[in-house]
Design goal:
four-stranded mixed sheet, binds FE2/S2 (inorganic) cluster, Rieske Iron-sulfur Protein
Length: 208
């Protein structure tokens, strides 16, 4: 990553900030590895192609067959965490119940590709799998995945993400609650399936 600190543009500032938070996230991951399985979080570092290409923003492949039902896999794309969650049918069934709790239930203001503008915010081909940029839309922290939110700060959501920084909460489609300081839903990045088990994050083939 080549963000300039001497004369940073607005986008560079964002990149630097995200990188700092990513390092914090990584440290937390190491410390909390023993409890990761219990939280339904999986991590891997599929770095293909080269590290240099990745730093420049190259797409990243992930094997979704590795993700257990209800678990989250985190990959890195453009210096940011990207989550892939293998949502259970039970999780999907809760989505329609959340609309009254959300700022933008229909994702009219959300950043997402057209193919994710549906009730699941995912490609129809694999609707159980959601792909999200793991950066809070408030001030850029990385929220924690909470597959069981019934004992959390937003028990009505059942499952989703909670941001410890200022209390934003997102449902299992990445939609923000009305009471959160974050203004918008989590971003869905461009992505495509190369086959039934491989997702390519960062390239949806739109320009191919
Ligand atoms: S950064 Fe997530 S709630 Fe503020």
């Amino acid at each position: 990553m080549s963000a300039s600190l001497d004369n940073p543009s607005a986008s560079d500032e964002i990149v630097v900030d995200v990188q700092r938070r990513r390092f914090l996230t990584t440290a937390t991951t190491v410390v909390g590895a023993a409890g990761a399985a219990a939280l339904g979080v999986q991590f891997f570092s599929s770095m293909s192609p080269s590290a240099r290409a990745l730093a420049a923003g190259a797409p990243v492949e992930a094997d979704i067959s590795l993700i257990e039902a209800g678990a989250q896999l985190t990959v890195e794309w453009r210096g940011k965490p990207v989550w892939i969650v293998n949502r259970t049918d039970e999780m999907l069934a809760t989505l329609g119940e959340n609309d009254g709790l959300l700022k933008d239930p229909n994702c009219e203001k959300a950043v997402q590709p057209d193919y994710a503008r549906n009730a699941f915010r995912s490609r129809e081909q694999h609707k159980n799998y959601i792909v999200l940029v793991g950066i809070c839309t408030h001030l850029g922290c990385s929220p924690a995945y909470v597959p069981d939110m019934t004992a959390g700060i937003n028990p009505a959501l059942k499952s989703g993400w909670e941001c410890a920084c200022h209390g934003s909460a997102f449902d299992i489609a990445g939609r923000v609650t009305s009471t959160s300081p974050a203004a918008t839903n989590l971003e869905v990045p461009p992505y495509q399936y190369l086959n039934d088990t491989t997702v390519l994050v960062g390239d949806d083939g739109a320009s191919a």
